[in-house]
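Hey,

Quick one before I head out. I ran the complex with protoporphyrin IX containing FE overnight. Inputs first:
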Amino acid sequence: MQSLKWRACMQMEPLTNDQLPIIPDVHEQCICRKGTLGLIQKLTKPFIYLSVMTCDFNLFLANLILLAHPPNKVIAAGETRSACHVLNAVANHGILPHDGKNITFWASNTTVRQTFNFAPSLCFFVLKFSADFLGRSYWVDKFDLEELSKYNAIEHDASLTRRNAALIPDQGRPDLALVQELLSVATGKGKGGKVLLTKENLSKQLAKRRGEARAETPEYSESLFHNMFGSADSSMSLTIFGSRVDDLRPMLTEERFSGN
Ligand code: HEM
């Protein structure tokens, strides 16, 4: 009886004949509730639509007057970013909180996974690993993007788009010279003559970066785990962004999605 009542109320649909004699009061309640909701909707609809349109028009006017953020300066003072351009892009677009703060580990798993069609297992692994190295619970705790850049946790020397943390402690921004260099080594050719970054290009560039980074800072460190992580990250970029330099450029330089 309880579940029938619940069903009737949730669905707000007339019950079948055999249910009616059992719970006539529920049927009446539903009809009554439907009527009340209909009336409230009728009364509030014009007000809500008008408010939204007014608000929207005001935004349109404000956008005509206000200066747009330059593409590579969308991060306001006090906002934080990580050593991962992919997560930064998600925050830059406001899919994760724009200030990059107080992000729930488990909720960001869904967000990142849905944004990039990234494997749930890998997404869980990386975020659980992050929660563990920060000494937090994956299930209930939160993080700020910059906290992911803890040296030699996931963040490591010889990255493709960042100089070693010993040289540049703020790992939240790309080194544009490194990004240009990376994109310039692309030799692949795709449909319509699109320039592609190939696995070979990436491997050579990673090897070059490891040599350079070793020479750049005496504190340089390298481990099998970080090398594997760096290589896996790079190949994920190829798969997810289709290797296309045109699409990788905005992602790596401005940490935003390409308009294509
Ligand atoms: C799921 C949560 C993720 C976390 C916690 C995370 C974290 C990180 C961190 C801390 C780094 C810095 C490593 C370094 O020092 O180079 C990094 C780099 C990187 N991440 Fe992520 N990441 C995530 C998802 C992704 C996804 C979905 C992609 C997809 C393409 C990706 C691609 C990369 C790449 C290519 C790098 C290397 C950048 C470089 O070498 O400069 N990440 N990530």
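Residues 2-65 form one domain.

Talk tomorrow,
K.
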